[in-house]
Amino acid sequence: MYDLNALENFQIAATELNLLMREIDQPFSVRSNTIPHPSYSAAIRKIAGLHKKGLERNHGGGLLLTGHSGVGKSMVLSYYKNQFPTEQEPDGLVIPVLFVITPAAPTVKNLAESILEAMGDPYSAKGSSEEKTRRIYLYLKKCRVELILIDEFQHFFDTIRRSETRTVTDWLKNLLTVAKIPVVLAGLPRSELVIQSNPQLARRFSSRFNIPPFAFAEENLQKQFRGILKTMHSKIPLTCVPLHDANVARRIFIATNGVMDYICKLLDQAFYLARRSPKQEITLDTLNHAFLDEIWKDCPGSLNPFSPVSILRPLIQTGEPFESHTHSLDVPRAIRKAL
With helix as H, strand as E and coil as C, how does 12-72 read? Predict the structure, then answer.
């Protein structure tokens, strides 16, 4: 005899597999579609200006790029890096723009290792701090590096060991002075405190740029946000509730606090859910479930922006998704006590 339950489970699994294969054949992600907007454009112009000045003056200036998590700092750095790809030439790698991620607990030794690794040094983990520093200068010249992008700079401050922070920032300052290569530091708002802790570094990074989340308080800012959503809507290959409609846009703003990363998470999950629905359509109910899946799984119905009973207020109170965004420097409690 056939096991009907087993057969039914097999048929369900086969259907899910077919859906998955169809998505692989027709991939889509809001995140993979670069959506230009004024803050991104302004940040890229600031980086380009620093890059150009470094080439013209042989001068290692600096720029500090800040913003809350998810606003798109790394996206901006990656976009700029991709405009100047690494090339293999007969005499070795040419890396016009070097992209480095700060280690979680930076020291001179592991930061130097990260820089060497980014330049392809097969022995990046070997040697003392001094030996690694000498190799960095050698590789920077050999690879013809014109600009250095250092992401996650707030890690310099994510330790209570102030002496270590000062040692590493002094080393970075000396690297700038000797190499004469412009550097962009990017990180969370508390990165400002790293710079302020070292007067000489503060002087070299007097140029600052902050990427804010989208805003919704004024009519012109609402129009800008709705314009971004309209562009996103045009790229979604499914029937979709008009994202740029004033009422829908307000709900999306509350659901994401205007943070690009959350907008992408919300819409990508909504697309994923819609592809599995009978009507293949993104509705407010789809967005309701996507919000629970990706942003706040325990959200009560009265606070879910896509619920018919939602009171539609910012989700910035204690225990809500955007509580930390109300702190200007976003400094962890343990570190605030040590300041």
Answer: HHHHHHHHHHHHHHCCCCHHHCCCCCHHHHHHHHHHHHHHHHHHHHCCCCEEEEECCCCCC
Burial of 300 (0-12, 13-18, 19+ CB in 10 A): exposed
pLDDT score at 240: 98
Residue range 72-101, pLDDT digits in tens: 999 999 999 999 999 999 988 999 999 999
Contacts of 98 (CB under 8 A, 6+ apart): 115, 118, 119, 140, 143, 145, 147, 148, 149
Q: Tell me how far apart the alpha carbons of residues 10 and 181 are, in angstroms, rounded to a whole number.
A: 60
pTM summary value: 0.84
Select from 133, 137, 113 the least CA-distant residue to 125.
113
Burial label for 49, CB within 10 Å (0-12, 13-18, 19+), is middle
Q: Whose structure tokens read 């308080």? A: 217
* Spatial separation of the C-alpha atoms in residues 138 and 116, rounded to whole Å: 10
Q: Tell me how far CA of residue 188 lies from CA of 104, 126, 171, 260, 337, in angstroms.
A: 13, 31, 21, 15, 19
Q: Write the CB contacts of 248 (distance below 8 Å, at least 6 apart in sequence).
A: 229, 241, 242, 284
Q: Which residue has the tokens 């040697």?
A: 127
